[in-house]
Specification:
CATH class of one domain: Mainly Beta
Helix content: 25-40%
Radius of gyration: 41 Å
Order of helices and strands: HHHHHHHEEEEEEEEEE
CATH architecture of one domain: Sandwich
Number of helices: 7
Shape: flat
Oligomer: single chain
Largest sheet: 6 strands, antiparallel
Distance between the termini: 46 Å
Structural class: alpha+beta
CATH topology of one domain: Immunoglobulin-like
């Protein structure tokens, strides 16, 4: 039996293929921290046992390591790990907020407001003083001039009256009024599709070991267990159902007996959180850090 640890054998096989931890993480579509934790034998940082097992198998297959041997060693070492803790799934660090930067920005905004108010007050005062100024020069009284001679206006002969026939011919005919076409609402005004309500029956078949949780719309736990290779989990309840798949990349989903593909954008680090309604529509569902679903009966 070799004296190398699991992480040391993974590192040696990766370097033999000429890969970096960043390149390996990109090929597996997972965070680089998972690769680093596997090679450093820090399995507790990855989370629950089922997640460590899945990531170890996929990584060993990628770099050509002896998968069966590594999984046997992991089975002997991983027995000491605690039960699945789904709240320890790796997440991106939260950005820090610089409180001093916000204070400086608020100070600049407040100073700009004070300057604007002062300028407005000065301009308003200048306008009032300008309007109140009255000229002291006495007004000059002008004497009305003599009326100018009015020239006689030549008389204009009245036009002859028009006959009724001429009056009727001079009126322009009225044009027909074309009705306006009906206004069609734009696509943005169309109502958004709602989640289909009703009882939902789903079946999940696993091609490898996979942790599965299923809850109904009220938070009632319908399924909570690990499914082995070739086995399936079935549940039915009031929808939409909330589903967690620890290994979504090796699981297939059926809704009402019809196969439904799990979109790639719902899978992160091989784990998928989503809701499914009676129509088979899947939507993302973000599980809170402190889950109330696990405390449901």
């Amino acid at each position: 039996m070799t004296s190398e640890s699991i992480g040391q054998r993974l590192t040696r096989c990766r370097e033999a293929m000429g890969l970096t931890t960043t390149t390996a993480a990109a090929r597996l579509h997972c965070d680089e921290s998972i690769i680093v934790s596997l090679e450093a034998d820090r399995f507790a940082e990855i989370g629950a046992r089922v997640f460590v097992q899945g990531h170890l198998r996929r990584y060993a297959d990628l770099i050509g390591a002896p998968t069966a041997e590594l999984m046997a060693d992991w089975a002997a070492q991983g027995a000491a790990l605690a039960a699945p803790d789904l709240t320890k799934i790796p997440r991106a660090p939260m950005p820090t907020v610089d409180s001093q930067a916000w204070g400086r920005r608020l100070g600049i905004v407040a100073a700009a407001v004070v300057i604007a108010v002062a300028a407005w007050w000065i301009l308003q005062g200048a306008g009032v003083s300008g309007q109140a100024t009255v000229s002291s020069t006495p007004a000059t009284i002008s004497t009305p001039a003599a009326p100018a001679a009015v020239e006689p206006t030549p008389s204009v002969a009245p036009e002859p009256a028009m006959t009724p026939a001429e009056q009727s011919s001079s009126v322009a005919p009225s044009l027909p009024v074309t009705p306006s076409p009906p206004v069609t609402p734009s696509p943005s005004e169309a109502p958004s599709p709602s989640v289909a309500q009703g009882r939902v029956a789903i079946a999940i078949e696993a091609q490898s070991d996979c942790w599965i949780e299923i809850y109904d719309a009220t938070g009632k736990k319908l399924y909570f267990d690990n499914v082995g290779r070739g086995a399936s989990a079935r549940a039915a309840g009031e929808g939409p159902l909330r589903v967690l798949l620890g290994r979504a990349d090796v699981a297939s989903l059926q809704v009402g007996g019809r196969p439904v593909t799990i979109p790639a954008q719902l899978i992160r680090n091989s784990t998928a959180y989503f809701t499914v309604d009676v129509a088979g529509s899947l939507r993302p569902f973000v599980k809170p850090e402190t889950s109330t679903l696990e405390r449901a009966p």
